[in-house]
Design a protein that fits this description.
elongated, single chain, Arc Repressor Mutant, subunit A, 3-stranded antiparallel sheet, mainly alpha
């Protein structure tokens, strides 16, 4: 099962939701910063989870004059499946900075000035990300969602510290 499918299953396990509500939670929690969930894939994934018996759907009358909405709730087997898959996910910590590591592995193709310029731009992006995470973590959030932001914030802060140290060593070598 993909991370996208697990993320959406997790949101349905949290509480029954319709597709648009799932989209709102994904956007509100900044989940696109760490998953590949596209708006158009939400319903596809929900249908796949339903076919697999992990979620159950029922029509719910919309408030007002809108059409009925299909609301998805986790089946018992879906809850258990999610628990098992998430434990497996912790078995092997992963390095998620693949693009940066690819760039580093090819560093010799750049001049020292190009390296410094690219790193300065990368550093600015990290600072922007750090600021956004600080803002998001300060909002009214459930504890488990705040933990996601503070975890990411800690990683970005550590990467900035490493990057500053490495950039300084590049200047010394010059």
């Amino acid at each position: 099962m993909t991370n996208v499918e697990l993320a959406i299953l997790g949101l349905v396990v949290e509480c029954p939701r319709h597709g648009y509500e799932i989209e709102q939670v994904i956007a509100g929690r900044g989940m696109r910063n760490w998953t590949e969930i596209g708006f158009s894939s939400i319903y596809h994934v929900l249908n796949k989870l339903e076919r697999a018996g992990l979620v159950e759907a029922h029509d719910e009358r919309a408030r007002g004059r809108g059409p009925a909405r299909k609301v998805y709730a986790a089946a018992d087997i879906g809850r258990q499946f999610l628990r098992e898959q998430l434990i497996k996910a912790l078995d092997q910590p992963s390095v998620s900075q693949q693009e940066f590591l690819l760039w580093l592995s090819n560093l010799p193709v750049y001049t020292p000035d190009e390296q410094r310029m690219a790193l300065a731009c990368y550093r600015q992006q990290l600072l922007n990300r750090q600021q956004a995470l600080q803002f998001q973590a300060a909002g009214p959030l459930p504890d488990h969602v705040r933990a996601m932001f503070t975890y990411s914030l800690t990683l970005v802060t550590a990467e900035l510290s490493w990057l500053d140290e490495w950039m300084l060593s590049m200047e010394v070598e010059k």
